[in-house]
Design brief:
GMP Synthetase, Chain A, domain 3; 2 domains; five-stranded mixed sheet; 10 helices; 12 strands; binds xanthosine-5'-monophosphate
């Protein structure tokens, strides 16, 4: 029978057998999945693990600081932070196609991990080699990336279908058979704090797949502001546990006419995508209170330059996916 204790025990044994005396690195994204995967691997191999947090510049407001503080405080894990925003933005320049963006982001992640690996080896050259990469891949990520199940490829999750072919690492993916609610239970069992375990999902490719159109620094800044406002108001309204997540999307290639003061504006729309779900495989749009939606809309159009319209996505999954790309 399935219990969190049996999952933890089984995975700890499997990870020890797989990694042996070698060393591993784990990419932390700030999300639940990578945090639980890291905590599980740390339990199995302790200081043979180094976590790597890649700041790809596609993060939400305050996210980097949160990983640096919360996760390290909770686990005491060795953490290496890499600022790679220049690199990711350069690689994404001129690219609008969603799958291409996902592949580029997946590839750049791996290149940065390889660099981190080289640095970790250089710091302790006589230690065992760093051969393993830990990922918080879940069952739905595998299915929706068409991972060996014969299912149609819906989108390449950055840590599955987005991996480069010449990958030098062996993968450790202890959550590959689990759904999100199970991952949360395992995280709890491992003693991770509520703020981490109950965090809403956020995709590895970050805001990069929430800008419909080319990803640029200006557009990211704009979306980051709008997203922060939406999150703030949802939290203030006490809705965080009610909704699964609420992607905020910038339609960067669309403009519409508006009016502000006595002047005409010609700005971009923001889409709010609040969803309710059990496992992200299917979802329904959340019936949020009108007052909350109104506050979010007023604040975003007042406070975010170049955004003159806020729209609500009322599509279920299927036929829509949760993210727009
Ligand atoms: P979709 O858009 O496929 O999203 O309905 C399902 C869930 O997965 C998240 N998501 C991702 N998570 N890497 C991730 O770690 C990705 O590339 C990725 N793409 C989507 C999404 O936020 C939702 O929770």
């Amino acid at each position: 029978t399935w219990t969190t204790t049996s999952v933890v025990d089984e995975q700890v044994a499997l990870i020890r057998a797989q990694v042996g005396s070698s060393r591993a690195i784990c990419g932390l994204s700030g999300g639940v999945d990578s945090a639980v995967a890291a905590a599980l691997v740390q339990k199995a191999i302790g200081s043979q693990l180094t976590c790597v947090y890649v700041d790809h510049g596609l993060m939400r407001k305050g996210e980097t600081e949160q990983v640096e503080k919360d996760f390290v405080a909770a686990t005491g894990v060795q953490l290496k932070v890499v600022d790679a925003s220049e690199r990711f933005l350069a690689a994404l320049a001129g690219v609008s196609d969603p799958e291409q963006k996902r592949k580029i982001i997946g590839r750049e992640f791996i290149r940065v991990f390889e660099q981190a690996q080289a640095e970790i080896v250089a710091e302790a050259p006589n230690d065992h080699p760093v051969e393993f990469l830990v990922q918080g891949t879940l069952y739905p990520d595998v299915v929706e990336s068409g991972g060996g199940t014969g299912t149609a490829n819906i989108k390449s999750h950055h840590n599955v279908g987005g991996l480069p072919e010449d990958l030098e690492f062996q993968l450790v993916e202890p959550l590959r058979k689990l759904f999100k609610d199970e991952v949360r239970m395992v995280g709890q069992e491992l003693g991770l704090p509520e703020e981490i375990v109950q965090r809403q999902p956020f995709p590895g490719p970050g805001l990069g797949i929430r800008i419909v159109g080319e990803v640029t620094r200006d557009r990211l800044d704009l979306l980051r502001e709008a997203d922060a406002i939406a999150r703030e108001e949802l939290t203030a309204a006490g809705l965080d546990r009610e909704i699964w997540q609420c992607p905020v999307v910038l339609l960067a290639d669309v403009r519409s006419v508006g009016v502000q003061g006595d002047g005409r504006t010609y700005g971009h729309p923001i889409v709010l995508r609040p969803v309710s779900s059990e496992d992200a495989m299917t979802a329904d749009w959340s019936r949020l209170p009108y007052d909350t939606l109104a506050r979010i809309s007023t604040r975003i159009t007042n406070e975010v330059k170049d955004v003159n319209r806020v729209t609500l996505d009322i599509t279920s999954k299927p036929p829509g996916t949760i993210e727009w790309e």
